[in-house]
Amino acid sequence: MDIAEVAKASGLPSSTLRYYEEKGLIQSTGRKGLRRLFKADVVDRLALISLGRAAGFSLADISDVFTANGPQINRAALLEKADELDKKIAELSRIRNGLRHAAVCKADSHFECPTFLRLLNIAGKSHHRPKPRW
Amino acid sequence: MDIAEVAKASGLPSSTLRYYEEKGLIQSTGRKGLRRLFKADVVDRLALISLGRAAGFSLADISDVFTANGPQINRAALLEKADELDKKIAELSRIRNGLRHAAVCKADSHFECPTFLRLLNIAGKSHHRPKPRW
DNA sequence: ATACAAGTTCAAGTCGACTTGAAGTCAAGT
DNA sequence: ACTTGACTTCAAGTCGACTTGAACTTGTAT
């Protein structure tokens, strides 16, 4: 496949594909002249990458789930990411509850409200960063 | 309160407080010499801001929940954000399921697997962006 | 009065994930 | 043989949320 086909199949612009290759997330199998050639299974890989990105993982995180250079994936790493997602989901649920509470709480200062106070410990202590998806 | 007190109470560096003020998210009530003075309730506001940031909302999004310049909050906007979070949580849950599935699926290409295919429509179509929390 | 720690401003730098632009290369169709 | 359009490289730009650094001001403690 040439880059345009991969782009179409994956929904990603070719500039992104080149960038991903440069970062080692995907690889082209050769060149025809200057032009990259890809094997069809790269589309699979890209789907998984997009899934990871949609979940907020960084490209560096995502590259963990790919083994050295084969088309295989590291299933253990994948499950680990799934577990991380579980935690994130739990955290977001608590935050959502916090927001809903703040919306109805009568206390002038939310700090007078124990329900809210409990929630606040969530924010501020997480030092991992969500990653952009423009 | 002076900026150092607010910083301590909120857990945010003073550089961030100045930045937030510049962006209109908080306001100082006056100056003593050059130095900013804050009312105590700014700490409340900051807690809410941190909560929003932890949830992945941008500062622009967060400023929606603050009314013009008073210390009040826009409860409707807050509930709206909570609803957005619900959606995000649902999406993340689906993605997590997708990851778990990819970890166990035997198919060489996940594209041969309907379970996985269904999941993929999730990724790639969301064009809102999570925001960094360094 | 003098020093100094802590505040201030403003411009510039940083981070990750891309995108954009300029300038060049090339396969394929006419 | 020539054009054309899709590709290529590489450097630089962009976005949001801050941080950092240099140069300056000031309240407080001595």
UniProtKB/TrEMBL annotation, chains A, B:
Alphabetized CDD domains for the sequence: HTH_MerR-like_sg6
HTH merR-type domain boundaries: 1-68
InterPro entries on file: MerR-type_HTH_dom (IPR000551), MerR_fam (IPR047057)
Coiled coil ranges: 75-102
Keywords tagged on the record: Coiled coil
Coiled coil as UniProt keyword: yes
Protein name listed in UniProt: Helix-turn-helix domain-containing protein
Organismal lineage: Bacteria, Pseudomonadati, Pseudomonadota, Gammaproteobacteria, Cellvibrionales
